[in-house]
Predict the 3D structure of the following.
Amino acid sequence: MAEEGRSGDGATDDSHRKRDGVDLISLLPDEILQTILSSLETFIAVRTSILSKRWRHVWSGTPSLYLNLYTHGPEGDSINNFIERYTVRKMMSFELWAHLRDKRPYVDRWIEFAMSRNVENMTLFVFNDGDQKYQIPDFFYINNSIRKISVNGLYSGLTIPSYVSWTSLKMLALRNFSLYDECIDKIISGCPVLESLSLSFCLELMVLDLSKSLSLRTLEIYRQTWFQGPKQIVAPHIRCLRLKDSQLPCTLVDVSSLNEARLDICFYGPENPKDDFLQVMGLEKLQNVEKLTFRENFLKILSLAELRCVPFPSFKVKNLTLVTMISQYVIPGIVRVLQNSPELKKLTIIHTSELYIPYSPLSEKHIDTYLDLQSLSVEARVFENIRDWDIESKHVASFMELMFKNTKTLEKMVVWLKSYDHGRISAELFEMIPVLSEKNNVTIVLNSSASKPRD
């Protein structure tokens, strides 16, 4: 029998934590410890140097630096002191959050330091000080090691030098900038291997011409009423488009290689959506897309277009995802999309208002006002007059039946329900699923787990 305080193999409990007076964490190789420290804010990682002689220099070999100096952190001179002790010659990532109020003399130096260490991933979030706007230094635009850049301009203007050279850059994200068409032209010309471009809330941009970016595959555009650009997209080589738009249409001029698209529309103010919206946007440009995601606001626009008899194109979509609360305001649009998708194989319905909440949704009140002005009633065109989709079994089954009636080639339906409704889903519904599946020759997956699908 083992003695008290010992494990079955005769070792003391304390020996599992220490060996020869050294804790087992400290026995880990530097590479593992440095990977762990990289997940911490850098000035916290630096504090580990006082733990023991073993830890004195471990932090200096971390592959990443994360300086969060917006609300706290050491003074600029202190940071200069410890980055002078940083030994890594090839840095994986550098993330800087700083306020110009007391860090302006240091910010450029820290950026230059990271670039001198051949950093691959860089994130910059520099908070402006009143009317003083941070201007990215010219040296930032010439670097052959950087692969990923994310910069939040906080409504600053982006002044691009005449020459840009990011020969290894694959991912670029710009947020909150005054960005002119010529700025994008300069950037694209200096990024020969760029694969992903994200533009969020960028002013002034009118025509986004990416025709010369031969390697670009993913484009993300986020707009608002106050940030209306771009208004036209020319991107013949992209495969994936994510467009979160405002009420002003963004015309898809050329997206001829597109294979996947995720679309939503946000609305502000009392303006009513125009019934020719789909024609203005160029929805026919999505005819050959095989994977489509439509969110609630976009589905409401599709419903209005259907009620106004706006022509819909036919789609070659095989995988369709609908992220929406099911109501009478989205059903006509959904039905028309299904009827015009003769090759559809998989339909995923994410029924939740939690996964995505638009900044300003298109309200039912605005839709009713629009319908009244047009002397139309949404109930007159809604199949079975389905109103807000209750989580009760019969309503879920009823909606599924409606979907089956309007598609001929569906092979699989996946339905995601809100996690907090898990307890309300009755055994009756699970008994219905096999019957519906066999009757319609469709595989049905009902997911009510707490985890949410990735957007």
The CA atoms of residues 247 and 273 lie 7 Å apart. Confidence is low (pLDDT under 50) at residues 1-17, 354-359, 379-390. The first strand starts at residue 18 and ends at 19.
